[in-house]
């Protein structure tokens, strides 16, 4: 009985499962069928929307193409009309030009006719003038014959007397006329030059640097002098031999004098002394070591000074050897004026003056900086420093105008560019300004004596005085032998002779003084 129940239950379960499967398949079939219908409906809608979108896009493209066509058509018509108007305008201009040429041709014909008429009149006038000239010559000859009879003199004799009588007056008037012409020429010809030079000088502010032949090394106490001298003077002899200067240890308190004409050697000696005193070990071997190191440092400093100088002035592309020579200028002097300071000053003056004149300011500044480069060439040379500097500039591929300016700034060679006289003028301005240089007393006194002797050689001069450090020459003349007109001529002649025979900085004013004294005695 249990087995039957078991199979009944099993069979019922199998039937239930089979029924569930059947019902599930039916439900799934319906579900799939519904989804398929939904998918077809959605696909149909998507296709319909795509067709609508495509239609709209097609219409938009058609509208855009139509608008572009209309725009291009309008531009074409506008361009066509513009060219048509240009053609019409050109055609009108050509017609006007033809009319003008026709009018000019008509005017030329009229002028030719007028010229022919004037030529005929001129021929008649010349013929009339010739007749009148012959008649005037005949009348003049008759008058001359009448005057010869009255004066009992021939025309040649009368002419000679007239020339002799008017000669003195002509000389006086000619002198006054020449003076007025010269003064007027100076005022007109040098007006702009003075303006440029004055503005250049006013825009330049420099120090008055004076170099000498000694350097002073300050020490804290006089006990150090003994160490510097060393046993039996061996330290000081070693220092002098290593540096090439003279060390003077005298009674000057707390100071040692370094004497020498080469500023580089003096600077090496001063720095070496400073290091030796600080170190405290002063003996010949140490001295040679310190001097060698100092000399190397000075060479590096020279290069640094040269590089700093060209950077400050804005000059580029200089050869390293030229830069080194520029640095050496710091330790050279000319008539007491520091050479580097002088060259920097000339460079700035040249740039300013060239800018005022509308020339190349950079090239002028370059030439001004290098104009005295021949003075610092370390080797002995028989050439003048200007020519030597020019050769060095050529060697290191400088511009031809710069080379010519260097060589011509003392008139050693002919000037071939406008920069050359600018460099010469600026060199004179830098060297002749008050306080810039220091002349030797003997040469200064000799120049004043030569100036006075030159003026005394002129006829009528009684006394002569050079005043204002040779900037002015006062000339006293004899009032009985020299007239006022001759005094004007005398001042001009003296100035011309000074310019030809003497060399001097700046300019010299010549003042001729004619004093007339009338003396009478009452008895």
UniProtKB/TrEMBL annotation:
Keywords, in A-Z order: Cell membrane, Endonuclease, Hydrolase, Membrane, Nuclease, RNA-binding, Transmembrane, Transmembrane helix
Name under which the protein is recorded: Ribonuclease Y
Pfam families: HD, KH_1, RNase_Y_N
Membrane topology: Single-pass membrane protein
CDD domains the record matches: KH-I_RNaseY (cd22431)
Region (Disordered) location: 97-122
TM stretches of this protein: 6-24
Skewed-composition ranges (Basic and acidic residues): 107-122
Sequence ranges assigned to domain HD in this UniProt record: 339-432
Subcellular location: Cell membrane
Family: Belongs to the RNase Y family.
């Amino acid at each position: 009985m249990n087995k039957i129940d078991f199979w009944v239950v099993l069979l019922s379960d199998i039937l239930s499962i089979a029924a569930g499967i059947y019902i599930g398949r039916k439900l799934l079939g319906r579900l799939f069928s519904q989804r398929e219908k939904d998918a077809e409906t959605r696909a149909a809608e998507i296709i319909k929307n795509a067709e609508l979108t495509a239609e709209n896009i097609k219409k938009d493209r058609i509208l855009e193409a139509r608008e572009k066509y209309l725009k291009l058509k309008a531009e074409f018509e506008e361009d066509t009309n513009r060219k048509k108007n240009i053609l019409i305008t050109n055609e009108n201009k050509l017609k006007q030009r033809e009319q003008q040429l026709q009018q000019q041709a008509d005017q030329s014909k009229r002028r030719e006719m007028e010229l022919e008429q004037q030529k005929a009149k001129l021929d008649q006038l010349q013929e009339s003038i010739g007749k009148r000239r012959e008649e005037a010559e005949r009348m003049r000859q008759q008058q001359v014959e009448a005057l010869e009879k009255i004066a009992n003199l021939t025309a040649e004799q009368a002419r000679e007397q007239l020339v002799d009588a008017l000669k003195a007056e002509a000389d006086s008037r000619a002198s006054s006329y020449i003076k007025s012409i010269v003064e007027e020429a100076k005022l007109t010809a040098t007006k702009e030059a003075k303006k440029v030079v004055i503005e250049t000088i006013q825009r330049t502010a420099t120090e008055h640097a004076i170099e000498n032949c000694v350097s002073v090394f300050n020490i804290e106490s006089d006990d150090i002098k003994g160490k510097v001298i060393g046993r039996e003077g061996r330290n000081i002899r070693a220092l002098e031999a290593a540096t090439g200067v003279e060390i003077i240890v005298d009674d000057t308190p707390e100071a040692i004098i370094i004497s020498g004409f080469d500023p580089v050697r003096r600077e090496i000696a001063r720095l070496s002394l400073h290091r030796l005193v600080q170190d405290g070990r002063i003996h010949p071997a140490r001295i040679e070591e310190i001097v060698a190191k100092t000399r190397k440092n000075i060479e590096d400093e020279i290069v640094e000074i040269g590089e700093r100088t060209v950077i400050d002035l804005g000059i580029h592309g200089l050869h390293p050897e030229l830069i080194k020579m520029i640095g050496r200028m710091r330790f050279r002097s000319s008539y007491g004026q520091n050479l580097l300071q002088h060259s920097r000053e000339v460079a700035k003056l040249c740039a300013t003056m060239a800018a005022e004149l509308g020339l190349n300011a950079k090239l002028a500044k370059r030439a001004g900086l290098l104009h005295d480069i021949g003075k610092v060439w370390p080797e002995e040379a028989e050439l003048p420093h200007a020519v030597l500097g020019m050769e060095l500039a050529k060697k290191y591929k400088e511009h031809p105008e710069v080379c010519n300016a260097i060589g011509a700034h003392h008139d050693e060679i002919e000037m071939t560019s406008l920069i050359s006289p600018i460099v010469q003028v600026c060199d004179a301005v830098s060297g002749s300004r008050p306080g810039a240089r220091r002349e030797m007393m003997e040469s200064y006194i000799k120049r004043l004596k030569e100036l006075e002797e030159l003026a005394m050689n002129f006829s009528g001069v009684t006394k002569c005085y050079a005043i204002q450090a040779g900037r002015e020459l006062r000339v006293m003349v004899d009032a009985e032998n020299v007239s006022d007109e001759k005094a004007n001529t005398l001042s001009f002649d003296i100035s011309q002779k000074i310019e030809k025979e003497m060399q001097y900085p700046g300019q010299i004013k010549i003042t001729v003084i004619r004093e007339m004294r009338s003396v009478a005695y009452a008895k």
